[in-house]
Design goal:
Layout (H helix, E strand, L loop, with lengths): L1 H25 L19 E10 L2 E8 L2 E7 L1 H6 L4 E13 L2 E22 L9 E26 L3 E2 L2 E2 L1 E24 L2 E27 L2 E11 L6 E12 L4 E16 L6 E17 L1
Antiparallel strand pairs: 1-4, 1-14, 2-3, 2-14, 4-5, 5-6, 6-9, 7-8, 9-10, 10-11, 11-12, 12-13, 13-14
Length: about 300
């Protein structure tokens, strides 16, 4: 787990370094105002942005359910191999800011479903059982969603302006993150003329407070890079959560933008005891991409 943590953080920092070196070279100037004399918004004006996109998370860790612990390793390659099993995947983000104050809502949801027959190992990260081999017929549906709501405040804003905005801002943030997991499993196995069935529909949801910080840097007018880190849980929901994300936003024109990056989330959650104990110790990490509007 430590090795994975170091690998994820190192990869993010390397991409950040690449962004700071490459983006200023390839970027071009944003088109100016449509009309001569048109006012360009500044730092103290209201700014709104809304984006839609998708996150492709891999999962690595362990899940404890039904009295046993099983490892989970669902890589990006595994996800590509089960694209047909993804029923829906969507992410969205809304942000509003004025001066040093900001408000944001960010969320992601994925639903995967798989039907198998014969003997096959089911790898979709689910609750009960967390991992098993099917001998017969089975249908498995797994749902995973995370969302956060936070307030931010810039403790530093650079006097140097790019596109009438501070070139560098450093802000603190605090809020809540909600996690939702659900699994629906149905198994039918026949042996020696006897058919047995197993059905399970379980869901869990919890809310974690968090605090963190964010750095925004505008290397030039068309590009905006962001590095965000969050720490939370504090025993309220999870024992501990850690989130780090790095993204780059490209302004297509005055209103449209595209963004991409990487995000890694670690969750250490536990509830219940004995046979009812459930523990979710998991890294979720992967790339994301999206488009949006700002005004």
């Amino acid at each position: 787990m430590k090795a994975l943590e170091i690998t994820a953080i190192t990869a993010l920092l390397c991409i950040g370094l690449l962004a700071t070196v490459v983006f200023p070279v390839v970027a071009q100037d944003v088109p100016g105002p449509d009309k001569p004399g048109e006012r360009v918004k500044g730092y103290d004006d209201w700014h709104f942005s809304f984006g839609l996109g998708g996150w492709a998370p891999a999962f690595q860790g362990s899940v404890t359910a039904a009295g046993r612990t099983a490892p989970v390793k669902f890589t990006l390659i595994d996800e590509l191999q089960v694209l047909d099993d993804i029923q829906s995947i969507i992410g969205g983000r809304f942000e509003a800011s004025k001066g040093p104050w900001g408000f944001l809502i960010d969320g992601f949801y994925v639903r995967m479903s798989e039907s198998v027959s014969g003997t096959k190992h089911v790898k979709i990260p689910i609750l009960d059982p967390p991992e098993f081999t099917v001998q017969g017929n089975a249908s498995v549906t797994g749902m995973y969603g995370v969302g956060e709501t936070a307030m931010s405040y810039d403790v530093y804003a650079s006097p140097c302006l790019v596109a009438n905005m501070p070139q560098l801002t450093v802000g603190v943030l605090g809020g809540v993150r909600e996690t939702y997991i659900r699994s629906i499993v149905g198994v039918e196995a026949t042996a020696l003329g006897v058919t047995k069935t197993f059905a399970s529909d379980k869901s869990l949801g919890w809310v974690d407070p968090f605090v963190g910080w964010r750095v925004l840097w505008r290397p030039c007018e068309k590009w905006l890079t962001s590095l965000k880190t969050e720490y939370g849980g504090f025993g309220v929901g999870s024992n501990f959560i850690f989130n780090i994300s790095l993204d780059a936003t490209y302004r297509i024109n005055k209103c449209l933008f595209a963004d991409f990056g990487l995000s890694a989330l670690y969750t250490d959650y536990e509830t219940g005891s004995g046979a009812d104990r459930f523990a979710y110790n998991m890294w979720s990490y992967g790339p994301f991409i999206g488009v949006g509007v700002e005004f």
